[in-house]
Structures are given as structure tokens and as C-alpha cells.
Design goal:
Length: 104
């Protein structure tokens, strides 16, 4: 799997002459997939791409694009989901015993 990443001021995708997707300023990512590539590979590439520092501030310096408020909300939700999942997973005694047998 190969990804080609390009900064764009706008981009669109057309199929049979009809626009099926478009963006303003952002990233255009072309993905090349080979026969032996798997679905599990894509999250690895996406995570690498998200860590790239490719936008510039008003001084021309590269900087991350981050919405601090939304990131904090997402982190809080992630923690809540982890806690609720842990509570749920161990609540049922049969499920607990099965998982302990499988993973221990």
C-alpha cells in the first residue's frame, strides 16, 4: 500500500462527470492498493499521516492543526468508553470466566 499526500486549497472527486466528494483547504490523499494488502494496514497509514506536520502558520513555520477543545472532549469520551467497557466486560460472571480461560 502506498499513499501520496498533497496539500490542496480545494479538491474534488468525480465519477462519470458527477462530483461525489469535495473539500476546501486540506489534504488530498491518493491510495494505491496491491493484491496482498490487507484492511489492517490502513489504520497504520492513517495514524502516520495524522502525525504529519504539513500546514504552515502565518510565519511560514510548519505546525500541527489541532482543535484543542474537540481533542479534549474526544479524549474524555475515550476514557469514559474504556471505563464503561471494563465495567460491562467483567459484570457477567460467565463472560468473565470465559475470557479468563481464553486469555490467561
Amino acid at each position: 500500500m502506498k499513499l501520496v499526500i498533497q496539500r490542496v486549497t480545494n479538491a474534488s472527486v468525480s465519477v462519470d462527470g458527477s462530483t461525489v466528494g469535495s473539500i476546501g483547504k486540506g489534504l488530498l490523499v491518493l491510495v494505491g492498493v496491491e493484491a496482498d494488502d490487507t484492511d489492517e494496514m490502513l489504520p497504520k497509514f492513517v495514524n502516520k499521516m495524522l502525525k504529519l506536520r504539513i500546514f504552515e502558520d502565518e510565519n511560514g513555520k510548519k505546525k500541527p492543526v489541532l482543535n484543542k477543545k474537540e481533542t479534549a472532549i474526544a479524549q474524555d469520551r475515550q476514557e469514559l468508553i474504556k471505563q464503561k467497557f471494563a465495567e460491562w466486560i467483567w459484570k457477567d460472571i460467565n463472560r468473565r470466566e470465559l475470557l479468563c480461560r481464553i486469555y490467561n
